[in-house]
Write a structure and sequence with these properties.
Elements (H helix, E strand, L loop, with lengths): L6 H14 L11 H39 L5 H10 L6 H10 L1 H11 L1
Length: 114
């Protein structure tokens, strides 16, 4: 007969994995060894995508600022260069929101840096 080693801790560890696997399809939700692999892979994706989310949002902001700046005859790089020289301390997130939702405020920023 195998020797038992601390059932309390091992049961807790398994329950933690099974709780994370809740909502998965098929054996991933109720077989520990399969669930463990699925949860580990999911956590790897979550870690990676937290970084990618930042990249994707920055790219989206740049596209929106570019579209807004081109309405006033400037490219994105030209606009951001002038924003830097004019010491306008508005980040890309706010500039993108202005370009998208408040075009008159964005026009004021463009006029300030021209």
């Amino acid at each position: 007969m195998p020797r038992a080693k601390n059932r309390v801790a091992s049961r807790t560890r398994r329950k933690k994995i099974m709780k994370l696997a809740k909502g998965y399809f098929g054996r991933r939700k109720n077989v520990y060894t399969v669930a463990k692999n699925a949860v580990e892979k999911g956590l790897v994706y979550a870690y990676r995508d937290r970084k990618q989310k930042k990249r994707k949002f920055r790219a989206l902001w740049i596209q929106r600022i570019n579209a807004g700046a081109r309405q006033y005859g400037m490219s994105y790089s030209e606009f951001m260069g002038k924003v830097g020289k004019a010491n306008v301390s508005i980040n890309r997130k706010v500039l993108a929101d202005l370009a998208m939702n408040h075009p008159e405020a964005f026009k004021a920023v463009v006029d300030a840096v021209k």
